[in-house]
Structures are given as structure tokens and as C-alpha cells.
Amino acid sequence: MAIAFLAIVFFGAFITLFVMFFSAIKEAEAQAGTIEEKFVEVARPPTRILTADGVELYRVSEENRIPLKLAEIPDHVKNAIIAAEDKRFYQHNGVDEQSLLRAFVSVFKQGHVGQGGSTLTMQLAKRLYNGNEKSFRRKLQDIAFAYVMEREVASKNRILELYLNQVYFGEGAHGIGAAARTYLSKNVKDLTISDAALLARCVRSPSRENPIKDPKGSLENRDVVLHIMHDEHMITDSEYDKALAEVPKLNPHPPETTAAYSAGYAMHFVQHVLQTLQEDDPTLDLKGGGYTIYTTIDSHLQRLAEKTVQRIVEENRRMKINQGAFMAMDRDGHILCEVGGVSYKRTQYNIISQGHLQPGSGFKPFVYATALREGTIGMGDYLSNAPIRLPNGSGGYWEPKNSSPRENASGYSLEDALALSVNRPAIWTILKVTPRVVADTARDAFGFRTKLEAYPPLALGATAVSPLEMAEGYSTFMLRGDRVRPYPLAKIVGPDGEVKKEYTPQKFGGVFDPRVCEDIDTLLRAVVQKGTGTAAQDVPDARGKTGTTNDAKDAWFTGYSDGVLGVAWVGNQKIVKGKWTVLPMADRVFGGTTAIHIWRAVIKEARQRYGHRMEPDNTPPVAQDDTVPALHEKKEKPPRITDADMPAGTPVDDPNAGKAKPPEHTIPPAPVVNPAAHPDTIQNDPGSGGGAGAETGTSERSMRARSISRSRNRRGSGTRKRCRWKCVPIPACLPIRIARRRLLVRSRGAKLRSEFAGFTGRETRRCRLSIPRANRNWI
């Protein structure tokens, strides 16, 4: 009876097993057609971000995988995997009966399926279809799928290729290519026999028995695999001995993420690219792999820019400088390099694409350009330097001062006012043209998208703007009235090889009067030749403007040379109450002594690679379209305000007096700059009182002290005079930018003063040599 009962039970179990296996076979056959899709999915490369010259910056996918063809994998690497996981791989038909017998014995003895019994094909079936559940039913499914795969779908080599690309090796590495990079920092073709054996055993228990988690255990597992390879005649005796003696050189810096790889530089720029892609197409699945993103930067310039920013910051740490940023672009708006900060590990906040900082005196060219276009001032005008006292809207007064007490002349020529970065002439200018007109022009003509406060401190750069906006604004001067927007992307190629999107320059034609742009270009050239930007004189054809804010929180230099434009910034960032905050630097920090050195080092190289001389544009202004106000329209010139009309401390009358709106020169409370929400948002130190641009500095003051204040002689006389010492006759009215000076002679008084009344500084210097030294006195 007992034997009969056991026979019935055994027969019933056999029937049940047969039915389950037959059902699994049918299921496997139904899904067999999807095996090629699995090959395509695994073979899909990760999404890659490349520089303009083809250097890989970044790679991202759902899994950290480097797809490889079987021919790209050395034989000893294949043999190591086979020896470790399925040494009879080429002898069975997908199911190894000997291994299965061990598995069934494990079921009856332990009540569950232990390790062993699975061939490479069965392991692949488990990963592709059946999951990681340890049960008798799943084992039957693995057998059925393995049998169907080898019988109807794929060859042995095809299955081995898919396995080597699909299997998990631990530490986020999927496939032998990623494992070689993760553990040994090598390509697969460079793996030794010892390396291959070390990696092959990781598959058994990838989370525990890998070289990072258990170095000692990994060496023991390597030796086991080498022993099998030797016994199976996969390696010779000498290769076996050499491999045993070899000490693996593990990767000292394993990847920090399992889904991405970085080239180690340009990470702020990569962040900018990813942000731009997300804004352009939120549905773009980069982690799905297969995309190739072509950017605009030059890998050589990018490395140079990063090293230069780091060097300048390090050289000036004693000046309380610990952060810097830089970007450069060509005349088409291609960003050639972008350094968003000194260290991406220290902070991921990109100052170039996310930062909003006060530009200081770097904003003055936009004020003067607006005034020139409106006819409020002329290139030969003598701008007032009279003291200013305006109500600030909160019961007090705003009394802006120049950066140096030596800047005390009654007035300055327009060229000297900008070159020497004198503050009060810029404020008088914005009061004449009105802050609202300047703010509107900055938005409509120069491309500023940040809301600019229409109040007098705007002349000194008191409203925070983005470095990208500064670059776009200055491009209007460089392109003689056209404007171009900086952009980081060239094109996107999809997984199918088709171009999904191609980026073209965003140019805005005829946004400003080209003749005024020529004038501003001349003024910016004077900044480099004789003003606060003389440190950039070794860059041919350099034009630019320095900018330094109150308490030296921000130091800038923005400029261009032969069609290449750059923006440099340095500052002092520290974490205050959990947020990155911009704090004051040392008193001797200025844009013309720090940031300018970043600019000159990179632009000098960039102009050699991408620059070409800009030809002057003598064409008349282009008519505006309906979307942009008519900026070139000649408007009635407002009343001129001379020095006689502006006694010290007397504010200028508002040209809009009598209208319902409050006076333009009434200063509302300074706005609070709130950059875009970000964990590293940079804010101004609330205790420092904010700041408008104040271009100051020991070196700049000395330059100003040595410089002779020049302005056009406004007498208008064309007569020729000869001084009493028989000098060569010189016109009484000389060209623009020749300053007026008077010679005072102690002993001869009014008589000599009348002799020199019609002469400019250049004339009096020539006649001065004829006067006895005791009688000379310059003021």
C-alpha cells in the first residue's frame, strides 16, 4: 500500500510538473518574439553631451552601462565569465542537466532553491523576463525560456553578447564595460586575465562580493576563477602564475552616481545645458539613452577658463576673494566657454546662468548710449560733476559720491567720465534722460529681461542682472546695433540618428542706432587705453568696462575684442544662515585689478581661435518692426543743463514736472534682489546696505590722478592764434577729447591768463616751456 501510495504521489507530481513546464514553454514561445527588442534596448547607448570639438562631457542613462559588441570583448574576458558562471555553456542547449540535478536535490533537502543550476541562458531569462523571485515555479520558467531562446531565437554568441552587456556587477555597473570602468578605471580591451577573473566572480553576489565592498574576498574569488580557467585549459601555466601574482589596481575614485559619468570639468555648463533642454522640451527622456547632445563650447578654451578662474581666485584669497565666474561667446552667440564657479563640488549654483548680481559701473555704457540716442548729450559735451542730493523716498536723502576725493573737477568730458568711471556725471545724465527711458531702452534694445528699477541709482548698476544679460547687452555695441543672445546648444540627435532639433543664433537686427554704437565703442576703447581697464591693453583691439559695487561685493569686467565677447566676475561667497551669501571683499578689490585678469587671459586665446576684425557699419539705422519701439527716432532735445544751472547740492528739476506721476529722481527704497529659487541662492548681505556701482581702487585712483581731465573746447571759434612766445599757430577749437586746461602764472596774473584764454591744454603745455619755472602753476 505504501509503495502504491508513493507511486501515485510521484505520478501526480510528475503530471503537475509536466503541466507547469508545458505552460511555461507556451508562455516563453509567446514572448520569444520580444528577445530582439531586448537586444536593441540593451545595445542602446547612453545619452551623451559633447563639446563642439567632439569631446564627451557627460553621459547619462537609466542604468550605468557601456554597450559593447562581442568582437570588442577580448577572449580571456569571455572565458573568465564562462568559467565563473557556466563552464559547459557551449555544450548544453540552454539547460545544464547536471546543474539542474543539484538544484532539485536542494529543493527536497532544504525546501527551497539554493544557488547553482542556472546556466548563462537561464540567468539571462531571469533578468529579462522572470524577476528575482526564488521559487520552484520561477525556476521552471527560467528553464522554459532558456530552452526556447536557444532553440528558436538566438545563437550562443548572441546570447553571450547580451549577457555580458546585461548582467549586474554591483556598484551600479551593468555589463562588463561599466564594471571595468567602475572598479578598475579601464576599458574592456585593456583588462588583464587577473582583472577579468576579478570581475567575473562579482556576478554571484554583486552587492557584497565586489572589490570595493570586500577587497580580500574578491581576491579569493579571483583565484577560484583562475583555477577553473586553468583546469579548463583556457589559460596556460605561465598565464595562470602571472595572474595569481598580479595585484589589482582598483579605481581610487569610483563614480558618485550609478546613472551618469562626467569628464570632470565643465559641470556648471553641463547643468546649464540640462536646464535648457528641460525648458525647451520637458518630455525629452535623456535617461532612456540614445541621444547625442552637441554643445557650443570649445574644450580647450573651457579648460583654460577653469584654470584661469581658479588661479586668479587663489592668487587673491588674501583679498577675501573665494569665488569667480567667466563666460565667452562669439559674434553669433555661441558660448565658447562657461565657468559657473570655482568648484562644482563646493556649490552647484551656476553664477553665469543662474546668478543675479549688481553690475556696478558696468551698466554706465547703457546710460550714456541712451542719452546719446535721445540727443540729451553729445560726444563732445562736458558733463557736470556737481554734488547731488536727492530725496530717497523714506524721509532721507541720497548723496552719491565719486569713488575718489581727487575726482573733484567741475566737469568731465564724456570720454573721461566713462574711462575713469566717475559716478556723478552718469547720475546727472540719467536724470536728464530720465531713469524710465534708460530702463525701457535696456529692456527693449539691449535685451535685459530682469525687471530694472527706474530710479537714479540704476546709472551705477544698483539693480542685479544676469551675466548672460550683460553679455547680450554689450553684444549690441560689438555688432554695431544688432544684438545676439548667448546660447549653449548646437543640435540634438535622437536615438534613431535623426536630428531632433538644431539651434541657430538668436539675432535681433537693428535694435540700436549703429552710429551711437560706434561712439560707445570708441568710449569703451578709451577705458582700456587710458582708464580703469588698462590691464587689458595687451589684448589687441580690446574694448570693455570695469564694474565694482559698494563694499566691493562684486567686481566685473565686460568687454570684447575682434568679435569675441567675455564677462568676468569675482566675489566673496560664504554660507550665512544656511544660504550662500555674497559678502564684501577687501577695500582694494576692483574689476580693473582682479576680474580683468581672467578676461584678458581667456579672450587673448579666444580671439586667436574665433576672432575676426569688426568692420565699421556706416549704414543708416534700420527701421524697427512692430515688436520693438522706434529707438532711432530723433526726439526733441530737452533743455540743456550747464554747470551754472547746477550749484552744489541742488537737484535737477524733473522734465516731467507738473504731471501726475511722482518725480523720476525720487528714489524709492532699494529693491530686494531675489534670484531664482535654488538651494544655493546667492543673496546680498542684509547688513551691508546694498550698493550702487562705485569704481574705486588704489591703482585706479592713481591712474585718475595722473590723467589730465580733457574736454572739448566749446568756444566754436575757428580763428588761429599765436601766443606771445611765438609758438606755431594752433586752432582755438581742437577736435573732440582734447581737454581744456588753464595756466595760472603767479607773477603775471590776469595779463597772462588773458593770453591763454582761447587755448586748450595741449597748446598751453607747448607754451609753458617758455615761462620761467618760478612763474608756473598747474591746477
From TrEMBL:
Native source species: Fimbriimonas ginsengisoli Gsoil 348
One GO term of the biological process aspect: proteolysis
Name of one Pfam family that matches: Transpeptidase
Biased composition (Low complexity): 695-706
Composition bias type Basic residues, residue spans: 707-720
This protein's name: Penicillin-binding protein, 1A family
Domain Glycosyl transferase family: 56-229
Catalysed reactions listed for this entry: [GlcNAc-(1->4)-Mur2Ac(oyl-L-Ala-gamma-D-Glu-L-Lys-D-Ala-D-Ala)](n)-di-trans,octa-cis-undecaprenyl diphosphate + beta-D-GlcNAc-(1->4)-Mur2Ac(oyl-L-Ala-gamma-D-Glu-L-Lys-D-Ala-D-Ala)-di-trans,octa-cis-undecaprenyl diphosphate = [GlcNAc-(1->4)-Mur2Ac(oyl-L-Ala-gamma-D-Glu-L-Lys-D-Ala-D-Ala)](n+1)-di-trans,octa-cis-undecaprenyl diphosphate + di-trans,octa-cis-undecaprenyl diphosphate + H(+); Preferential cleavage: (Ac)2-L-Lys-D-Ala-|-D-Ala. Also transpeptidation of peptidyl-alanyl moieties that are N-acyl substituents of D-alanine
